[in-house]
Amino acid sequence: MEVPIVITEVAIFTALPGKDDQLGHAILQGLDIVRQHSECITAHATRCIEQPGRYMVNIVWTSLEAHTVDFRGGPLFPQWRGYIDGLIEGSAEIFHYQPF
């Protein structure tokens, strides 16, 4: 039996000054939207200890395309972004990882 290769999306978000806690709550609410996507296996967020305004979001997808094409091109993406827009500084740093 072949094991499917999953992709982990890692995104780093930095809050606008004074919006640290607000961004954290928005990310948690937004992840409820992300988890609704049929190709999302799991999603969670962690907060940086040294820089409390930085959050790391980890989402495991069934494939790269599940994230970059299906999710980003679908109706859930604007809902997810609606929670965090106006709270982040610059753009998120986003990378995709696979098992090796």
TrEMBL record:
Coiled coil, from the record: none
A Gene Ontology molecular function term of the record: monooxygenase activity
Keywords: Monooxygenase, Oxidoreductase
InterPro entries reported in the protein's UniProt record: ABM_dom, Dimeric_a/b-barrel
Domain of life: Bacteria
Occurrences of domain ABM (ranges): 7-76
Record protein name field: Antibiotic biosynthesis monooxygenase
Source organism: Ktedonosporobacter rubrisoli
